[in-house]
Amino acid sequence: MRYRLFGRTGLRVSELLLGTMTLRSEDDARRVVGAYAELGGNFLDTASAYGESEEVLGAVLTRRDRFVVATKYALSRDVRDPNAGGSHRKNLVLSLERSLRRLRTDYVDVLWVHLWDRHTPAEETMRALDDVVRAGKVLYVGVSDAPAWFVVRANTLAEWRDWTPFAGVQVPYSLLERDVERELLPMASALGLTVAAWAPLAAGRLSGGTRRSGELSEGEERAASAVRAVAGELGATPARVALAWVRAKGALPLVGARTPEQVVDCAGDVVLPPEAVARLEAAAPHVRGFPADFLAECEASPVAFGEGVVVR
């Protein structure tokens, strides 16, 4: 297992992140987390909204400091209470305290904002996050499922006011779901943020988990066939190839394994040659649209920056 830095921090995280939402029993969790740790994995991702699975994870964390434990807040704790959801300070404090109790720890390594809350000012969210960092209950912060402009605004506020900035973003990303290439991935690259890609196997459509007739569209089957073909040539599993593509695009795959066998199937240091990356993307074409495609055309023309100018 290789490791990368988490955003612009010194925190080392494994290239394969483990999502724990589907863990329902302590026995299953112990086996899955044990297999993951044995392979060198160290990043465990959960959320306040995951309920039982967050408690199950806490029950099996006998080597707490060995792992980078991440949880999320913002989704509602009680749909009848208007203040039980959102990224405001009250929900942050109550959600975090509940997560700490469930996880049986006094701190989490990473706290994600689970999704963008358009009703809470970015100033409130970032100041509240900085407060729990300064209190020692959280070490690093990130944001999941948010527009690029919000992440940039939030981190600019943090920079100006000496608050803790987001070190990573969590987004849906796979060969079949490439919308984040329009704005979010370029933004993350410019700001030095780690990208955690959830659903990197497209709910099993790229790993062979969904193969019955009628379950895949024509386009999905074309992409899945390309993944299987590359896997055969490299002597790897389709899952490893699909995850290697995500890593080749600069993101870290976040997988929700239910069994130790699935963990092993997803692990591995497969590195795709450029030709393989091109073949996979040709099988699942994606149009970035405006402004990305327009700006690329402008940069390729001397009209924009003059002849002989190299634009990187």
Features:
41% helix; 312 residues; TIM Barrel; alpha/beta; two-stranded antiparallel ribbon; 8-stranded parallel barrel; single chain; 12 helices; 15% strand
Describe the structure.
With 312 residues, the protein is an alpha/beta fold. It has a single domain (3-284), classed as TIM Barrel. Helices cover 41% and strands 15% of the residues. The chain has 12 helices and 10 strands. It has helices spanning 26-38, 52-60, 89-103, 122-134, 148-161, 184-191, 218-234, 238-248, 260-266, 274-283, 292-299, 302-305, and strands at residues 3-5, 12-14, 17-19, 43-45, 68-73, 108-113, 138-144, 166-172, 194-198, 252-255. An 8-stranded parallel barrel has the order 3-4-5-6-7-8-9-10, surrounded by 5 helices. Strands 1-2 form a two-stranded antiparallel sheet. Helix 1 links the parallel strand 3 (17-19) and strand 4 (43-45). Helix 1 (26-38) packs parallel to helix 9 (260-266) and helix 2 crosses helix 3. It is globular, with a radius of gyration of 20 Å. It starts with a strand and ends in a 7-residue tail after the last helix.
Question: What's this, in brief?
Answer:
The protein has twelve helices and ten strands.
